[in-house]
Amino acid sequence: MEDLLRALTSSDLAEIVALTLRVTGIALIISTIIGAPLGALIGLSKFRGKSFVRALLYTGMGLPPVVVGLFVYLILSRSGPLGSLSWLFTPSAMIVAQIVIALPLTTGLTMTSVESVSPELKRQIAALGATRSQAAWTILREARIGVTAAIVAAFGGIISEVGAVMLVGGNIAGQTRVLTTAIVLNTRQGDFSLALALGLILLILTFIVNTALMKLQGR
Amino acid sequence: MTLYQLRNLQHRYGERTVLDLSALDIAHGEIIALVGPSGSGKSTLLRLLQFLETPTQGSLLFDGILSDHALPLEARRRVVTVFQHPALLDRSVFDNVAYGLRLRGVPYGPETIMAALGRVGLRDYARVRAKTLSGGEAQRVALARALVLNPIALLLDEPTANLDPYNVGLIEEIIRGHGTTTVVLVTHNTFQAKRLADRVGLLLSGKLIELLPADRFFNAPLDPRTRSFINGEMVY
Ligand SMILES: Nc1ncnc2c1ncn2[C@@H]1O[C@H](COP(=O)(O)OP(=O)(O)OP(=O)(O)O)[C@@H](O)[C@H]1O
Ligand SMILES: [Mg+2]
Known about the structure:
With 219 residues, chain A is mostly helical. Chain A is 78% helix and 0% strand.
């Protein structure tokens, strides 16, 4: 209990929570802005190689975060192709890694939810005079429960993720330390109550964000 | 004055020829009823008339313009279909009826929508969520959504299939008051075709057996298959 209080009142904690929300929030917004329209586009069009794209997306949805972290690390490392950005061990690197993890989720799950809108409704929308983009927007709105689920799944995947942010962020106090990496560190140091308190905060944050997302969806 | 002109039109799904029409003209302002057994191609023909699909072969002219991918949006938007199974958006009844107008960017007041709902007897349902409606109510909302667009051609696929006798009467009254709108009515009910249509056509296995003025279709058809269809003797 004391540890919990200590954790809740420390200024380090506020910093950690703020960084967690900033990194995950930016990654989630970018993944949604790209993934939802892209998923709708893929879900609504027929083209050769679509099943290949689908298989790629499904694979991407199951990517081990630590492998993503490794790739992002190699790309951003000084000798890597994007080494000149000097993003390694900064929040930017963590955002990039989380986008790579989240994007297949927002894209793939939006695609399947758009595909599950009944063909009859799609035909009716066209017959009422919708242009292609009007139809896509209407169908995306019809699939809003599935699209929200896509965002929720992506959020859950990246806020709870530790392997990738640890690798590319480095868990530097005051710079790249987020809730999950702080939990790992405190557990390793034997400070279990602090780790538990941080875990609790993570759960509460997740609950609040998911409730807000559900409100947005209108449920 | 022809609105639709179909010539040597064939429509195939894979190897199967589902429609095979040598000639079909539909005039401005007429009510044409299409009857025929299940699977004869009635709904497919409506999809072609709505430009949802382009015929595999032959030509379909709408108001003198060839129906293909180049058909202008404005021309497309002058035709509206109410499908066999009403498909409503997961929004309020009001928003469903307003949907086509919003797509077109046409300004409208609530009274426009309420008047359309009033015509199908659903004025009190404006705020109801469309997903909670019964089958017959949904079908009437779908009709109101089409009527409010004041189309040049209204394509109706079994518009009274889910309705009780009172509402069948209501819908038939609306169809009768079509004004200058061309109506293509697909129905399994030959009596309804007789009550409403200027001309009636029989489709069998994708072929238009004959298309005659209603009284001749029912009283003096040229093809023996028409008579046996009317008398319900046809074995499918
Ligand atoms: N997209 C499609 N792909 C393959 N076959 C199709 C497709 N759409 C329709 N068909 C076939 O075309 C034939 C005509 O179908 P259509 O729906 O036009 O019949 P219908 O006259 O409207 O029948 P019903 O009275 O039962 O509604 C049917 O045999 C059907 O199986
Ligand atoms: Mg049909």
